[in-house]
Q: What sequence folds into this?
């Protein structure tokens, strides 16, 4: 299990928001390889569904990694995809997380994005490592979550 | 692997529908998507071939709020059942918190059920997930068709771990919700441990 405490969430969010501003991206997302969205920059301009975006990004990375393995076990470290107007740059962190920048090609470019990511990469990696170490020490989820309260019947019409 | 964010008060869990080709995995999550209140669901993604066979995965995010302000998100995925997509199937299982095995009840598809179950066991092993430990539900689908095996036979051959199982006619929604509720219940229970 992975969890984020409020102070960890804030640290990550601050870093991603700064990275987003400096790299002139539309949004910066931090995703885990199974497709969970872990954090994102504060970017009100980004209107797409970030949860869905996270799941597709993880699928994309997983497929590309499998491809590179097939070509001789070279490990994948980053990927770039572009549409007519946007660039999507993805880089792996600690082999487990994916940092994604989506940028408007008229406002930024791959070079700037990569330089700015380089600047923050270590810091993000260190926070994630500290989070993992804390999670490792905790045994179960705290009592503040009562799963008995969850009523699935209200979901359906 | 569940992900909990204490700042935004969100819990995220991944549920995968696994099973042989054409057993009705996509039909299950499509039915759930169609019957859930719009405010509780995100966008459905299907990565399918032109003939509507799943090529990589389907995805539906579902959101439940509970009284203490925690939000639980279930991410439902289906795997591609066709044999040729073995590699993709494995990728989808990464980080899974609960599995629904959708079997095809038709006699002529039983070998495919067994092969797919073997393939799932292998993949879980590779991820070091213990099948004895992971939340798991069986669904015997297509109970409306003529040439089907008795549930006892399906249960004996597939449900070797004595997990909850359900008969279903996914196209009519029969058994779909029951299956979904059972797997979410198990996943949430496991969180507590
Ligand atoms: N008669 C009957 N048909 C069903 C039932 N459930 C699904 N089907 C049909 O079976 C076909 C395959 O269903 P899908 O849900 O696409 O199967 P799938 O498991 O996602 O298949 P793949 O994506 O190839 O792995 C479709 O034509 C469905 O309408 C059922 O309970 N009864
Ligand atoms: Mg399908």
A:
């Amino acid at each position: 299990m992975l969890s984020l405490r409020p102070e960890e969430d804030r640290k990550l969010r601050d870093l991603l928001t700064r990275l987003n501003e400096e790299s002139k991206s539309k949004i910066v997302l931090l995703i885990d390889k199974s497709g969970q969205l872990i954090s994102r920059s504060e970017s009100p301009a980004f209107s797409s569904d970030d949860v869905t975006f996270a799941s597709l990004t993880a699928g994309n990375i997983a497929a590309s990694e499998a491809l590179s393995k097939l070509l001789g076990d070279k490990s994948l470290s980053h990927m770039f995809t572009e549409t007519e107007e946007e660039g999507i740059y993805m880089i792996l962190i600690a082999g487990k997380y994916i940092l994604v920048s989506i940028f408007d090609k008229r406002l930024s470019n791959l070079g700037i994005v990569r330089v700015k990511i380089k600047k923050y990469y270590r810091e993000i990696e260190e926070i994630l490592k500290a989070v993992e170490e804390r999670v490792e020490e905790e045994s179960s989820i705290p009592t503040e979550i009562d799963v008995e309260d969850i009523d699935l019947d209200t979901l359906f019409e | 692997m569940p992900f909990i964010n204490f700042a935004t008060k969100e819990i995220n869990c991944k549920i995968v529908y696994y099973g042989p080709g054409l057993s009705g995995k996509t039909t299950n999550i499509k039915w759930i998507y169609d019957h859930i209140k719009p405010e509780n669901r995100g966008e459905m993604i299907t990565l399918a071939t032109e003939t509507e066979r799943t090529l990589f995965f389907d995805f539906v995010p579902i959101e439940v709020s509970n009284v203490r302000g925690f939000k639980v998100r279930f991410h439902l995925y289906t795997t591609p059942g066709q044999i040729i997509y073995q590699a993709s199937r494995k990728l989808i299982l990464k980080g899974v918190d609960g599995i629904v095995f959708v079997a095809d009840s038709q006699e002529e598809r039983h070998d495919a059920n067994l092969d797919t179950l073997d393939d799932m066991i292998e993949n879980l092993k590779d991820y070091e997930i213990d099948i004895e430990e992971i939340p798991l539900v069986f669904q015997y689908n297509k109970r409306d068709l003529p040439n089907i095996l008795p549930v006892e036979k399906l249960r004996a051959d597939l449900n070797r771990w004595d997990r909850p199982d359900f008969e279903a006619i996914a196209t009519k929604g029969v058994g779909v919700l029951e299956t979904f509720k059972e797997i979410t219940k198990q996943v949430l229970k496991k969180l507590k441990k």
The helical segments of chain B are 25-35, 86-92, 110-126, 151-158, 176-192. Chain B touches chain A through 50 residues (CB under 8 Å). The beta strands of chain B are 3-5, 10-18, 45-48, 54-65, 71-78, 98-104, 136-141, 165-167. The longest strand of chain B covers residues 54-65.
